[in-house]
Amino acid sequence: MKVGCIGLGDIAQKAYLPVLGARPGVELHVQTRTPATLARVADGLRLPAGQRHADLDELIAQGLDAAFVHAPTDVHPEIVTRLLEAGVPTYVDKPLAYELAESERLVGLAEDRGVSLAVGFNRRFAPGYTQCADHPRELILMQKNRIGLPEEPRAMILDDFIHVVDTLRFLVPGPIDDVTVRARTKDGLLHHVVLQLAGDGFTALGVMNRLSGSAEEILEVSGQDTKRQVINLAEVIDHKGQPTVRRRGDWVPVARQRGIEQAVLTFLDAVRAGKVLSARDALATHELCERVVHAVEERTGAA
Q1: Of 298, 137, 154, 140, whose CA–CA distance to 224 is shortest?
Q2: Beta sheet of 2-6, edge-to-edge order
Q3: Do residues 66 and 3 lie in contact, with contact meaning Cβ atoms separated by under 8 Å?
Q4: Are 138 and 222 spatial neighbours (Cβ–Cβ below 8 Å)?
């Protein structure tokens, strides 16, 4: 199975290439326009010259069975379009694009061509989070905070807060009837944002503070006198009277803890089975992010 990886930055090197490079039956091809990075990464993976590519057309010409896109977000539309038009099942790191119209176009193109398109929402596969889907979820709270990183609203929401938005959508136990956004911006930069989703019998809150005292990710789901916390995707604390703590095993790979390995294998298994994956649900997350962007921009304009 020939699998291409386009873009060899930090996320590809730390999370995806260790999974793809160790998978039996996968002939891995890598592509980047940066010669030094291409040589260093390919050397580390011990890839022969025929599996190293500086040009996307050259990579596509290898007859790929699947591709993973980890290039910068602003070039996602161009790269994903070329892959889909070539009939290559494509997994793209979130988001599909910064502009909703481009994301809609890509999902439509994949459906028109009958080609799989998947978006890398790995938290849907992270063990600590998937287990929360079996827990009472009358109240859901997710925080994903950073230190000293205020940013332009659209980039922050689409590149980072989108994980919070998608995780809330994944965990809410019913249709969303109400969406509320609160935010603080200063000098055109987004400092923090709060998203509230509500429906029949549940409320979900997503929080991101880019001027927090620590870099952290905390998920809490509660209801029926029980609560489950997941801290940094690794530590699970169940509260029902006396707290019970479960920590990630010493030998559990980070890619498995964060759901990346499972997302990769699910995608590859679907490709092998000839199953076409749709990104239509992922598009709904992009649509909700666009609502958050507009709400923040309206508040910024009012200020």
Answers
A1: 137
A2: 52-53, 27-31, 2-6, 66-69, 90-92, 117-119
A3: yes
A4: yes
Query: Order of strands, edge to edge, in the sheet holding 244-247?
Result: 178-186, 189-199, 202-209, 139-145, 216-223, 226-231, 235-239, 244-247
Q: Does position 301 have pLDDT exceeding 70, yes or no? A: no
CA distance 302 to 133: 38
State both tokens at 194. 């709060």
Longest dimension (CA), the chain: 60
Give the residue-averaged pLDDT of 37-45.
96
Ordered structural domains, the chain, with CATH: 2-121+260-278 (3.40.50.720), 123-253+288-302 (3.30.360.10)
Whole-angstrom distance, CA of residue 39 vs CA of residue 22: 19
φ/ψ region of 188 (left if φ > 0, alpha if ψ in -120 to 50, else beta) reads left
pTM for this one?
0.94
**Mean pLDDT, range 55-64, rounded to an integer:** 96
What are the residues whose beta carbons fall under 8 Å from the beta carbon of 274, sequence distance 6 or more? none
Average pLDDT over residues 118-137: 95
